[in-house]
Description:
There is one protein chain. This protein folds into three domains: 1-19 and 35-62, no CATH class; 102-187, Roll (Pdz3 Domain), CATH 2.30.42.10; 191-405, 2-enoyl-CoA Hydratase, Chain A, domain 1 (Alpha-Beta Complex), CATH 3.90.226.10. It contains ten helices and 19 strands. It has helices at 3-23, 36-57, 64-77, 88-99, 126-130, 151-158, 212-226, 246-254, 300-310, 386-405; strands at 84-86, 101-104, 107-112, 115-121, 137-141, 144-145, 165-172, 175-182, 184-187, 191-196, 200-205, 233-237, 261-267, 274-277, 288-293, 315-318, 326-332, 338-347, 363-364. The strands form five sheets. A six-stranded mixed sheet has the order 10-11-12-15-16-19, with helices on both faces. Strands 1, 13, 14, 17 and 18 form a five-stranded antiparallel sheet that branches. The longest helix has 22 residues, at 36-57. The chain starts with a helix and ends with a helix. The relative contact order is 0.10.
Amino acid sequence: MSLKTRAILVVVIGLIMGLSLSLGGGLLSEPKPADPAELAWEQAQLFAEVMERVKRDYVEDIDDSVLFESAIRGMVGDLDAHSQYLDVDEYRDIRISTTGSYTGVGLEVGEVDGVVRIITPIAGSPAARSGIRSGDQVIAVDGVSVESGNVQKAIGLMRGRAGTKVLLTVLRDGELIEHEIRRENIRIASVYFELMSPSYGYVRLSQFSETTARELSRAIDSMQEQNNGMLDGLILDLRNNPGGVLDSAVDVSDLFLDAGIIVTAEGRTSDARFARSAHRGDVLDGAEIVVLVNNGSASASEIVAGALQDHGRALVVGTETFGKGLVQTVMPLSKGRAIKLTTSRYFTPSGDTIHGTGITPDVYVEDTPGFPDLSLSGTTDRELDLQLIEALDRLQRRGVMHSNAQ
Length: 406
């Protein structure tokens, strides 16, 4: 065993022994407790053996830091499908997705048919003002070629300090076009809304960020101003919404509830065990709600759908949801890194866990391929989107029933 590997072994043994001793108190009640020092030695020795073999015999030379990071990723990632080690860039990206803002040019990009294309420019962003269009192929950023498989690299190059410029080269109809764009602070909208006649609102949430509840409240206010009065009903579209910030889901649910439990959670630590309840005040004043869900509705989306369904506040229409009933906590580490760790299981107000089963809709309607559009810039289609058609029909029928009852 090399001197360097022996040094690594000493460090690993120290770490494992420290952890074993700190957690070993619970082992004292066992009939034949294992010796923490002996276990630590065996585990550390195995780690060092594997590392030495990899460094000596792997087809390419691998830096120690890469091997250690891979070991850490494996340790956290092997816990479940949702826990994850986050390096500096990954931690920055997850903060952007939860806070709802970043500094850049305001473009949603993705790989389409093997090339990197503009999905949509964010309305009012520097990119939108420059004339960049959906469907443009991204060729280069500041002269650096953008190719298939490096979407994240392209995104990273477009971000930077507010006020700085970036040169974006795109291909449109066989013509190369260069756009020099000044970076600004970009707010990522998570809400799209549309007033449907007569007096029915439609709101789609693409994710749950720290700003989603405020955006939703403003969207409802805007539709009620357009309607010159309260809405008669609302369609809340959570299809293909993968979730996000738990507190945001609680705040969204609270907009439509006057009282009662929204979600509870159970975990090993006191911070992981909690209950969230609604406060008085329904922004719709009791108007009918239909929640649209599908298999792409997960986590925070299921918290909202489950809470409104269990309290009888909304009719859930669509297909069964994804079934992710676990809460992840992002825990900062040194030097700008973090881990995203599963810390709780959550339960709907009725006490049900949806993990692995999902929310069952009150009215089952199969998905229509292509709906909803993956971009918030997409509009509704009341002729082809079968789930939306059903939701609107249910609102109108309930409105007629209430009118007849009066």
